[in-house]
Design goal:
The protein is of the alpha/beta class. It has 16 helices and twelve strands. Helix 1 packs across helix 4 and helix 13 packs across helix 14.
Amino acid sequence: MTGTTAMDERRARATLSRAVEPGDEHAGRWLRRHGATGFLDRLLHHTADSAGTSGDEPFPGTGSKRVASWRLRATAADPDRDLDTIQELGGRFLVPGDTEWPRQLDDLGDARPLGLWVRGPADLRTWALRSVALVGARACTPYGAHTAADLATGLARQGWVVVSGAAYGIDGAAHRGALAAAGATVAVLACGVDTPYPRGHDQLIRRIAEQGLVVGELPPDSHPTPSRFILRNRVIAALTRGTVVIEAQHRSGSLVTARAAARLGRHTMGVPGPVTSALSAGVHELLRGDATLVTDAEEVIELVGDMGQLAPARRGPVLPRDLLAPATAHILEAVPARGPTPTTVIARRAGTGPDDTLAKLYELHSLGFVERHGEGWQLTNTATDASNARRGGT
């Protein structure tokens, strides 16, 4: 609208955050067409005539009940009070176009948040550029909680921001893991940022607001609903470079987050669990699709990080015999486990000449793998233990 200021737009979006449920694409379409102030003006001042002709409808194609609900809530909203409340909390209300607005949220299209209510000292846009979502079951197992905390700690120590939903279970473990490493973490709430939920995480959410960021689409003093939890997950998915699911049943909000991430072109990852655990069934379902199996922070960073940030190669422990030259190791394998054995027998077992065998046996003797008893050779205790370990013995 002509003469509209940035403050007018911010106040209009603050009003609409009370009037419109998160992720409402009908509202998003009209917001894109008219802007926040234009949308609000049509909502509050433009009504259909007595005949109800479609040409006089403020939002053609949008159901009258939906529009009536928007209007009722918008009329009751007090944006100045909400903006004052967030300011008193030391926070702010971010809207598209702000320097701190994370532009990757624009990938949500008409489901993009109207704005974000934010508490905490950090810059959300900067933090989101290097962030990973860790999500999972509320009623998680000790294995899941340990894995989430360990992943979060590893990511935080390598400069990555851990994003989750502050719920019980995996979410809480992820936030605590990041905080314990003096790292960065963001809690995305399905309620007002001044209304800690769940109540049992009041202190955790307060701590996140001090060391990290607490973010929500809903204005102060808003309470969560089941649908708001589901819709909140799209923000977690869009905000981050990738989503890791740690324990989830087949019907789980965490899977909603992962699928939203996949639709947005983000990385989706899963941590495997026991095949007998129902809490791992949803993760395994993801892994049977396009999700990538990960087991630690390095493997997550290999996917979401810069080119060349590869996880270290995985292998078992390096044994002393692994460092032997192939020909020398071949002779060692030919030495029987029990009793002194003549050089000629060892050579025949190895398929080599006696002279070459004798030279290698003395080399192995100097390295502590074999010892000589009269005319025969036998393994030392160290070599016997290593041989048993290599073969899976006791």
